[in-house]
Design a protein that fits this description.
173 residues, mainly alpha, 3-stranded antiparallel β-sheet, 4 helices, 45% helix, rod-shaped, binds zinc ion
Length: 173
Amino acid sequence: MALDRRTQCQAWNTDHDHQVAAGRARAQAFTTVYQAAAGLASFAAFSARMRASHGSPQLFPHEAAKYVAPQDIRCCAGSLPLPLQRIIHAAWAAGNGWGIDHWLGDPDLRLPLGSLFAQGDYGHTWVAWDVGWLVCAACWLAAFCPLCLSDWIDDHVLVRLPQGLCAGHGGRW
Ligand SMILES: [Zn+2]
Ligand SMILES: [Zn+2]
């Protein structure tokens, strides 16, 4: 009987020690996995922000939309208009990882006022976005109203964007 108790006690102690050790191992493994995940997340955030600051395409657009604020989306030439930043951010959130090149046309193809739709109103489904801005519901392309943003000709970004008249200026949108 005494022997049995001692055996039981030893067994319990062994079990107890084992459980504590197992618990510690689990905690350590959890910490390692957690830290690895946290490290990956912070790298993904870093990578997304870096790409956003250069106007580069995003590898994981949904993640990028989480990690990057619209106003942090820029291009190599500098800042972008906020409505365009918001359009790009919305495109990322919808799963399209395009870089700024998706939105900016060739800088040599300056489009005279009102001539845009003579050249390229094919297939776009323009809807109103911010004041003076339109977005294509199909491809997220951004267009601006040259009458709302009248100094567009001096803007390094606007001269590379399609134009369309807003509803307030007689446009169809
Ligand atoms: Zn389109
Ligand atoms: Zn307008």
